[in-house]
Amino acid sequence: MRTSLASVSLGLVALLSISGCTFSGTSGSAGEAADPDQRIVVNNFRAPVADWALESDAAYILSLSGCLETLTRYDEEQGKIVPSLATEWTQVSPLEWDFTIREGVTFQDGTVLDAAAVVGSLQNVLDAEVPARAFSTTVVSEVTAVDESTVRITTPTESPLVPYRLASVNTGILSPAAFEGETVDPFGHCTGPFEPVSEKPKQSLTVDRNEDYWGGEVQLAGAEIRFITDGATRTAQIQTGEADVSLSIPVSGLAALEADPNVSVLKADSPRTATLYMNNGRAPFDDVDFRKAVRSALDLEALAASVYEGAAIPATGPFAPSEPWAIEGAAVPQQDVGAAKELLSSAGYSADRPLEIVAIVERAEFADVATVIQENLKTVGVPVKITTKEYAAVEPDLLSGNYDMVLSQRNRLIDIADPIGFLTADYTCEGSYNLSHFCNPEYDKLVAQAATTADTAERYTLYAEAGQILQDEAVNIWLVNEQAIDAVRTDLQAHAQDPLSRYVLRAETAKSAS
Q1: To 10 degrees, what angle do helices 288-297 and 337-346 make?
Q2: Angle at CA 410, nearest 5°, toward 407 and 416?
Q3: For a tag site, which of 45, 81, 101, 267 has the least CB within 10 Å?
């Protein structure tokens, strides 16, 4: 069966309204020509935490930097999966997909892109100790070269989502030389419009134009990607002109930026939800009545109106109401102090120690969110202390279950352009990103069934049923559905906002002459 681009995109058009998949371009003044000698600065909100391992979040840095490319790609404007390093794909059997590798592409070290190189790069991800959520041995059983230009992906069960998985930045392709050392080396080993040339660990990455880019002429001479976790600093640097692009602007900085004629603020709905994660594997959170009591104690509408100043909407559960797989009729949980106290009594809770909320500093508003939650829980007799940490510092404790509560945000479509990645990694018993330490066999069965369901409507119904279990079990408190908010200088040309922060530096990105 030849899989057409139209059929691959089935259902994704419905995501346009929730994932901001439109080009939000900004350009310089009329008549201003782009300057090919210009370099720009991009402020990103996080740094790579595992060297440059492709199975880690470092892949997002390499992708937004214009270095790393994948076989397929999710096109924001068209709302579908489109060719990239692969020109077409075919489902040759229920368990096998063949991808045709684009001719005439070379890695930045001069090596020719062929099937063998693709297999080696993808196998490196599969062999990782902690594999990528979108591309692991649980969903891909084998990657082989059929011939010099064809790569075959074999799955353990029938999966309609293989082209989606190959658009994940974690499946980006590096040349064989990138894997010769003890750690992955992307320098000179990408295929993208920009080539990494130097780094300051945990501080910045510098890239230069790839003069031999297969996708056409690259407009910028290069760029510096800075890793700035503090939202106020990202906001200040876009105002002063120290940065040309700042990603993930906190709500507190919006008024000043929107009043600045030299700055454009870009907003898009996104499938990102600020979440109060609760450790379901640790007392008192291992009692569902206690978790429900926490939910009843919180005033989500007041939280959205105060801390988020109306730039986010109260969450109704694990999905946004506008998503095609949302739980039908889901409403915002209402604060009910009396019900919360009754549930605490039912759970046998006694305040023998303050519970800790860790607020991730990459999201500047989380300190204020934590304070609101602290006050809400104090009202029902649950003492809370607040700690602020960078995500990289706290992740090992989250994964090992050594925490009470953490404020973080999760993008449901960050792994692949379908919530199967989120639902599998975050909430199945063996999920690789199951911070909640939740396990429910009925839930796992629904998600496994959805992963093999080709009919889009049927799959979305199964997603909604799985989401209902998460809501019924009060696994976490989904607080607000956020917007993606970025800021750019007005002399930046042909910039397209990506609400998922995968693609920032592109061949067409340009800047007016100073």
Answers
A1: 160
A2: 165
A3: 267
Report which secondary-structure segment, H or E, holds 200.
strand 194-200
Q: Can you list the positions of beta strands (E) in 19-139?
A: 39-44, 72-75, 80-83, 86-93, 96-101
Note whether 416 and 168 are within 8 A (CB). Answer: yes
Question: How many CA atoms lie within 13 Å of 299's alpha carbon, on the beta-carbon side?
Answer: 14
**pLDDT at residue 91 in the model:** 95
Reduce the DSSP state of residue 332 to 3 states and report it: coil
Q: How far apart are CA 70 and CA 47, in angstroms?
A: 21
The pLDDT score that the predictor gives to residue 20 is 34
Hey, what are 342's tokens?
A: 């009754």
pLDDT in tens, 392-422: 899 999 999 999 999 998 888 877 888 998 9
* CA separation for the pair 463, 326 (Å, rounded): 8
- Write down the H helix ranges in 83-230: 115-126, 162-165
Distance (Å, whole) CA 214 – CA 454: 34
Count CB atoms within 10 A of the CB of residue 92.
14
Strands 405-411 and 477-489: unpaired
Eight-state DSSP code of residue 176:
G
pTM for this model (two decimals): 0.77
Could you report the per-residue pLDDT of 155-166, keeping only the tens digit for each? 998 899 999 999
Provide the angle, in degrees to the nearest 10, between the axes of the packed helices 366-379 and 288-297.
110
Per the listing, tokens 């602007």 go with 249
Q: Which of 172, 44, 58 is nearest to 505 (CA)?
A: 44
Q: Are 82 and 503 in contact (CB under 8 A)?
A: no
Parts of the chain with a pLDDT under 70: 1-31, 79, 514
Cα–Cα distance for residue pair 208/187, rounded to 1 Å: 11
